[in-house]
Structure formats: structure tokens, C-alpha cells
Amino acid sequence: MRVLLVEDDEPVAQSLRRGLMRYSFEVAWVTTGGAALAHEDAYDVVLLDLGLPDTDGLDVCKALRERGDVPIIVISARSDETDRVVGLELGADDYVSKPFGVREVIARIRAVMRRIQPRTDAAATPAGTGGGPDRYGSRLTIDRKAARVRLDGEEVALTPKEYDLLSFLTEEPGALMSREQIMEAVWDANWFGPTKTLDVHVAALRRKLADVIAIEAVRGVGFRLVVIENGGKGDGDSGGNTS
Fold this sequence. Notes:
Blueprint: E1 2-6, H1 10-22, E2 26-30, H2 33-38, E3 45-49, H3 57-67, E4 72-76, H4 81-89, E5 94-97, H5 102-116, H6 119-123, E6 134-136, E7 140-143, E8 148-151, E9 154-155, H7 160-169, E10 176-178, H8 179-187, H9 196-208, E11 213-218, E12 222-227, E13 241-242
Parallel strand pairs: 1-2, 1-3, 3-4, 4-5, 11-13
Antiparallel strand pairs: 6-7, 7-8, 8-9, 10-12, 11-12
């Protein structure tokens, strides 16, 4: 999916851009309203900051909406209800207040895209293809639409952050994820607390899903999730560490 990011705050834009690209979004980043209106390459959704250096983002929102129906999600530090209402009345499809997490923005993008997709798309999709729970090995499934995890058909009780962590790590099984990547994706791009909380949640997932996944710790770097194919009950804790 192609995203046009209109944001003049470089740290915010770079963090959001990295997060979106990690989820396979293509991101074109511009820093002014003029550049956004002059952008000629195709895009599927616009992330629009209101506090731009050359013009009010609300004017850009109105101009973009007059050009077509591409979804517009406003991202702004303005929390006043009036700005939200005006933005939506001018054609924005959603509104995200700063500070925000990358996963929240992605969830809102996906929600907006689902709303605008023709219903015929769903009708044309054969039963059992796409949109269902993702399977990892023979015993573990993750239903990302319902945010539910099942082991041998039984739902596993996870806290919201345990679920977010598992969902993130299973998007690329076997890939090494740095602590910074994980904290940014699962907690918040602006997280300033101790990263010890990550170790606590990793330990909880190892305990609850010991037979079906292994979360390997790579010292000084981060973690790697490995799916245990055909993991059997009674195999013990498979969440070993790698020094």
C-alpha cells in the first residue's frame, strides 16, 4: 500500500516512516502542504499533519478531497474538538492525535481501507481464502481481526500487550528484531520507560506458548521468534536464549 506522509517534524516522520515500511507500506514523505498538493506519484492513503510550515493542514485536506476520494487520515498534536470536527467535515476519514504509536496508525489505515473497499470484493473472495486466522505450525492460530490466539482450538488468555508482541513477532517468524524495533512497534515510538517490560512480556509468552514457539534472545540485539513445527505437549519450555 502506498502512503503519502505529509509531516514537517522530522523525528516523528522518520519514526512513522520506518514503522510503516517495516509493515511493507511504501511511503512518500513530504514536509509542506505545497509539496503534498504537487505530488504526482500515485498513493492509496494520505497521512496529513495539520501544523505545516507553509499552510494550514485543513486547507490541504480540503484541496485533496476536492481532487478525489483517496482516504485522508489527519495526524496532529491539535486535540481541540473543533479541529477534529472541521477536519472530518472537510473530508478527512479519520483523526489521530499525537503522540501515537505506529501500530495505532496502521490499524486506522487498515480500518479506513476496509470501509472504502467495495462490498463486491468480499463477495468475490472464495470461502476459506484470505481474511481468516493465520496458522503457525499445527497447533497455534492467530486471528488478527478478532485479536484472539488459540492453541489446539482453545483460546489462550493473553494481556493486550502480550497479544501485540506475539502478533508483531509472528509477522516474520525467524527474523531477528531489535529491542528498539519491538518497543516502537508494540509500545510506542515515543516510549521512554525501561525496556525491562519487554523481557517480562517475552517471558510470559514463553510460559504460555512453550510447546509451539521459541523466542530466542540474541544478546545485545533483540529477539527472534521461531515456530516449533508439530510441537507436542510436554516438550518443556522451548524459549531458549542465544548469547
